[in-house]
Design goal:
This protein is α/β, with parallel strands linked by helices. It has a domain of 110 residues. A 6-stranded parallel sheet has the order 3-2-1-4-5-6, sandwiched between helices. The C terminus is likely disordered.
Length: 215
Amino acid sequence: MATPRPDPSHGADAPPLPLLTLDLDGVVCAPVFGLNVGIHRSFLDPDAPPRPAVIWPRLVAGPWDRARYNLRRPLLEAREALPVLARARRLVLLTGRRTDPSGWLRRHRLDGYFERVVYNRGPLRSAHYKLHAVHEIGPEAHVEDDPRTAQLLAQEAGVTVYLRDWPRNRDLDFAERVTRIATLSDLAARLGPPGDRSGWTEPSGRPYGAPGGVP
């Protein structure tokens, strides 16, 4: 059974919650063996025209994506943080994948936290696709793990980009709108309503907020 969408505890006359888009891989979904090697350290020229994507036929792309992604697990931090974030923000999953991840979300009981799932069905590569999607969706902020995408959104979309920390996205000169977060739990602590997080743990198993961990 899918996880019920959390009640934001807003009255009928209250303004809608701010909108937050989240990337899937490296933010909600764990990379294989915990090694996030698929992210891009080189930035794009924001003034250059976007390059078209190489799009495989659906009969090839579907099975390939299922083989790549279906056995992956959610990051532990996502299970802990999404219920908190969903009480403070409207959540939209925005992924560069070219197949619908809704089945994966349902299988792991995460689908109820998102009001929409948006994936790439167009001709653009992931970074420019997400730039186009962010312009259409209009979020207050976006959560990303890929340096190339984070930089392009910060430069061209006019939104705050929360960069989920991974070794391969460190030591780069980002635009001011890019804010690094240690984990999604870190972002939940910043944006979510106040509450007891004494039971939270980081991916290492260390209690959330322990010395040397997430502040």
